[in-house]
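Quick one, tokens below. Sequence please?
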């Protein structure tokens, strides 16, 4: 199994709800942040994607909440791409607290949208393999 890419994040107070827990929508934002960080680490900037007329899209996201997160908690958000045949791919992510407890798991079905045609690119793995300076970060 590939070693996932990860970023560190500290939960900020304004991201919490009335009970002092991380607001549920912020988990998805953290997952997005980790994915964009992976793209940058692989040598692909958002402007590079736009210049090539494509953009990543999320078609489905499932969040499984395991342990609470509160302001000041430090977490690691990992990101592992899983490839199959066709136009979509999966990204599995875990948010792990400093004490090693998994706070959440996020699973997404994603694709790469051709911005002119408004259709998914037929082979997104090939696009990332050719475009990335570090395709191994995409589990390719």
């Amino acid at each position: 199994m590939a070693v996932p890419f990860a970023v560190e994040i500290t939960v900020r107070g304004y991201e919490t709800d009335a009970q002092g827990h991380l607001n549920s929508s912020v988990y998805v934002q953290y997952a997005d942040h980790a994915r964009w960080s992976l793209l940058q680490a692989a040598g692909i900037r958002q402007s590079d994607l736009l210049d090539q007329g494509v953009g990543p899209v999320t078609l489905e996201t499932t969040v499984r909440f395991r342990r609470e997160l509160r302001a000041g908690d430090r977490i690691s958000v990992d990101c592992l791409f899983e490839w199959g045949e066709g136009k979509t791919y999966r990204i599995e992510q875990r948010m792990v607290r400093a004490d090693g407890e998994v706070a959440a798991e996020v699973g997404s079905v994603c694709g790469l949208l051709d911005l002119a045609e408004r259709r998914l690119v037929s082979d997104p793995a090939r696009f990332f393999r050719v475009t990335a300076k570090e395709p191994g970060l995409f589990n390719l």
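The longest helix spans residues 24-41. The CA atoms of residues 54 and 118 lie 9 Å apart.
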